[in-house]
Protein: Ribosome hibernation promoting factor
Amino acid sequence: MLDFNIRGENLEVTPAIREYVEKKVQKLERYFTEGANATAHVNLKVYNDRQTKVEVTIPMKNLTLRAEERHDDMYAAVDLIVDKLERQIRKYKTRVNRKFREREGVAAFLQSVEKEMSSQEDTPNDDSEFEVVRTKQFDLKPMDQEEAILQMNMLGHNFFIFTDAESDGTHIVYKRKDGKYGLIETESI
Structure:
């Protein structure tokens, strides 16, 4: 069962907009197991150039679905977002099913980890202090590199922290500028 949290920035969320978003995103429920409850966080923005940005995030127990789309027509952006989310779900299910076969039934569910990177373009002066504007805590669930890369891509992030299932070490995968992936393995000193 999907609950909705729909917000508008520079835009009033009318009943017609709310109904359209709920109707379209509700179609994703057919992919969820029975009894799965989730809240779809939908953010609608309108920019000065009249272009609309639609963001949908659906955090669930073992997976976070996230997509965003910019388009001149908000309704078209919602349609494109639902298509993106359906592709993510199908890709996730295919990989999980393959993992089950490869590991002979051992669960390989992804844990959603959301880590935001506060990036500031300005380099602080010697006089200024570094300011932490947000702190998040999360549990690291064991997974392999492929699962971590999949989760990173599904979240739309450029890095992902995870516990390696084989070595039990904390590792980081990241997307390189050339489009390939990198892995940082940590060691205790």
